[in-house]
Amino acid sequence: MSRSLRVAIVGAGPAGIYAADLLDKADTEVSVDLFERMPAPFGLIRYGVAPDHPRIKGIVQALHRVLDRPGIRLLGNVDYGTDIKLDDLRAHYDAVVFATGAAADRDLDIPGIDLPGSYGAAEFVSWYDGHPDVPRDWPLEASSVAVLGAGNVALDVARILAKTADELLSTEIPPNVYRGLAASPVTDVHVFGRRGPAQAKFTPMELRELDHSPNVEVIVYPEDIEFDEGSMAAIRGSKQVDMVVKTLQEWAIREPGSRSKRLHLHFFHSPAELLGTERVTGLRTERTELTGDGGVRGSGEFHDWDVQAVYRAVGYLSSHLAEIPFDHTSGTVPHQAGRVLDLDENQLTGTYVTGWIKRGPVGLIGHTKGDAAETVASLLADAPLLPAPERPDPDAILEFLADRGVPYTTWEGWGLLDAHERALGAPQDRERVKVVDREEMLRVCHGA
């Protein structure tokens, strides 16, 4: 084609930016616009990674270099489905890639799950990461808390609950989060995994980080260190599993210390019921047992735990996108090699997916690179057959948003916000302090 291929990417988190990076590097001349619902980019990195993970947040530097390129444009504070729809995007672009991730909590269908004091991990993560769309206050009233799940999100939630607020003061947590954690009366955090140590989904680094706090005692119970043939095969087949298991074994045999808070890791406990009438007063679990192949079954033995709050970290779920087919069970968009399929399994012309909305919320941030490579390869292969947009002029979409009254933000606006947050942190000897109010974010991004 005589003009550059124009691609819209909905979602400016890692998945969307990785796709933009690959498109920008393609042999075909491509211009990319990234649409983001929030005023700021970076998605999961900004609003889904615990603030005491500076190494992971360092990924932002690589993403920053991608967004610095002249062929890639950021349009923030634009909500797909409200401010702009699929037909609008098709009128301005040759192709649309959805990279919206997963922000909702997966349901857990057990009695009492809707009691006050029962929370989804995603909600809590959004609070401590300063997401503008969640309340500024969080009800941290429990002295003993349960976290359901055996993955990295469960460890993040447990670690943030167990640490003292002062330990997090050097991070970018907003002032309201510091105040909330400082007032928390929690002394014990219990993490429950349905299966055994060899089936835990923790990464070795995340697990070891639990033991770095001078104020938190990590406790593993010897009776939970159990393996069957399937477990041993998993240990032999994965260095990561082997490292996790060895760490847990070491912790299970050490003498307990005297740190002021305790973080308990329990295995072979399946949540059966949240106890209480007007709010959570306890958790009932069923002891599970190995079946020989690494799976577990219920033993019929139940335990009641004295906790006053329960956080479920049993997985994230993507939300249904307007005008796009959606599998509500898996929380993904039906696709073939990234090409979106309709209900009859026919390809929706010029419509693609990448990241968690494509494959589900599993794996680490870096794994989305493989998703992006497959999707971009499909898009570029289709490019010669894609219908031309009605309004290919790059400025046409800016006129459209202005006519709609959408106060969109730009990459230059993010630079202003970034500088503002760093200035807020500097007087306190902190790298930055995150702005949590959307209106304030917009004012700063627009230079007001």
Structure, explained:
With 448 residues, the chain is α/β, with parallel strands linked by helices. It has 16 helices and 18 strands. The radius of gyration is 23 Å and the shape is globular.
SSE topology:
Layout: E1 5-10, H1 14-24, E2 30-36, H2 44-47, H3 54-57, H4 59-67, E3 72-76, H5 86-92, E4 95-98, E5 104-105, E6 118-120, H6 121-128, E7 144-148, H7 152-162, H8 175-182, E8 188-192, H9 204-209, E9 216-220, H10 229-237, H11 239-253, E10 261-266, E11 269-275, E12 282-290, E13 296-305, E14 309-312, E15 316-317, E16 335-336, E17 339-341, E18 347-353, H12 356-359, H13 368-382, H14 396-404, H15 411-425, H16 438-445
Parallel strand pairs: 1-2, 1-4, 2-3, 4-18, 6-14, 7-8, 7-14, 8-10, 9-10
Antiparallel strand pairs: 5-15, 11-12, 12-13, 16-17, 17-18
Helix pairs in contact: 1-13, 6-7, 10-11
Largest sheet: spatial strand order: 3-2-1-4-18-17-16
Helix content: 25-40%
Segments where pLDDT lies below 50 for 5+ residues?
Answer: none
Roughly how many Å apart are the termini? 41 Å
Characterize the biggest β-sheet. Answer: 7 strands, mixed
Kindly name the structural category: alpha/beta
Outline type? globular
DSSP strand content: 15-25%
Helix tally equals 16
CA radius of gyration is: 23 Å
* Annotation, overall tally of beta strands: 18
Mean pLDDT: 94
Assembly classification: single chain
